[in-house]
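Researcher: Sequence of Pimeloyl-ACP methyl ester carboxylesterase follows. Predict its structure.
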Amino acid sequence: MILDYKNSNIHYTTEGKGEAIVLLHGFLETIEMWKNIIPEFSKSHQVISIDLLGHGQTDCIGYVHTMDDMAEAVLATLEDLKIKKAHFIGHSMGGYVALALAEKRPDLFEGLCLMNSTFEADDEQKKQLRTRANEMAKTNFNNLVRLSFTNLFAPESKHKFQNEFNEALQIALKTPLQGYIAASEGMKLRPNRFKVFNNLKAKKLIIIGEKDGLIDGASLINQIKNTEIDYVNFSEGHMSHIEDKSDLTYNLKHFIEK
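Model: Prediction complete. Tokens:
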């Protein structure tokens, strides 16, 4: 389905009936990443999956897409669907977008799962890496995406899940250059939202991959001690929907239904 938003298109799908679940994909991903999750949860819930700005079939609206910009686009979609309350599951960048939305509209949240994601801001080293990547993207986009994508998986997962890896890589390579740079610039600008997450009056879960090279799971676990934020440790990397599929489905069901 397509929503007209600021003279641009937002692409989303909605399947099933019942309480709402909103799925927000990560950087270089699309709603395709949820293809195994949606059938499972749409049996008992309305499952809404949204292509974020500059990804999939959703247009770019600028040369910087802040997490707040993306959250506003998500909000416009949910308002069009008349969603009053939902469980939100955000993978990586999708978690950053969900947190930006939680800051604006905490009343929307029945629960929030940060899946291979974080409430922390980029440190200076990460910001510099993004800046260099954006420069490289202008002249060597394909090689950059291939290199970036390899780092998302635990070393053995690239071979164990070779078909899924290649399929996800092909989707990533279709990301428009403007979408890549705009999202990357937006991620650099995001603030630390620990207080937003901690103060949210909703169920809260962080899914951590033991071999995730992008997210410092130990740091997150240390920061959420003595809070109402739960966490689950999986054995593999950043792509839990591929690398830890059955564990992910089980834990998301438990999170939504508890």
